[in-house]
Design goal:
5-stranded mixed β-sheet; 232 residues; Nucleotidyltransferase, domain 5
Length: 232
């Protein structure tokens, strides 16, 4: 958790179980959402490799292969937000330089607007700027918001080149906060990916936004808890 490094050594699962006196199961948000999508969306059964991206305050991914979740050693498989897209870039909380999430997370979007307000042509005070305010301005077609969101989308598309090359998914789903920017955002991500990825990979890839009103992260977490309980 690069934005909250102090939580790294906190045993959340153990502490919560002790405080609540009930069984507690902990799962990464993107992995929970990926599993929920696989279980609850029948059409995904036709896909071999699904990547569910949570693009919010960070960038993570749940990668499902024929119904099986890729966890990786120590459970860190899918940390695509820490792919390097600029080896001379700013240092990330993970210790690396130029990580993807430093360029396309919701936090990065707000920071970018703050630092490039003149370049984007945004007038007025930046005090109290929130993602909801950016989203509102984007929907009103205010130029500073469309430029900033377009730049964020482009960075995500560039990062997805590495994701496509590494995993060869046939479906990528973008969820969490940045998905609220809608079709124009998705089209900008696709365009940046198309400029750089092998056409053969692109031909078999379907990319979409999370459109369900159901909270996939909570649905996945609930399903995991039920599964653990039934197996226990």
């Amino acid at each position: 958790m690069t934005e909250l490094p102090g939580l790294y050594s906190v045993p959340l699962e153990t502490n919560l179980a002790s405080a609540l006196t009930i069984p507690v199961f902990l799962e990464h948000d993107a992995k929970a959402a990926a599993l929920a999508k696989w279980w609850l969306a029948p059409k995904l059964e036709e896909s071999e490799i699904v990547v569910y991206l949570t693009v919010g305050q960070g960038v993570g991914a749940g990668i499902v292969t024929n119904g099986n979740l890729l966890r990786g050693t120590s459970g860190v498989g899918g940390e695509v937000g820490h792919l390097t897209i600029d080896f001379n870039g700013p240092i990330c909380g993970c210790g690396n330089h130029g990580c993807l999430e430093l360029y396309c997370s919701s936090i990065a979007l707000l920071r970018n607007i703050q630092s490039k307000s003149t370049e984007f042509g945004r007038g007025g005070s930046l005090e109290g700027l929130t993602l909801d305010k950016v989203l509102d301005a984007f929907r009103k077609r205010e130029s500073w918001a469309t430029r900033a969101v377009g730049e964020s989308a482009r960075f995500l598309g560039i990062g997805l080149v590495s994701v496509s090359n590494a995993y060869g998914p046939d479906r990528i789903i973008i969820g969490d906060e940045m998905s609220h920017f809608g079709r124009e955002y998705l089209d900008a991500v696709k365009a940046a990916l198309a400029e750089r990825v092998n056409p053969r990979l692109l031909k078999s890839l379907h990319m979409e936004l999370e459109t369900s009103n159901q909270n996939g992260i909570l649905a996945g977490a609930a399903a995991l808890a039920v599964g653990h309980t039934l197996r226990g």
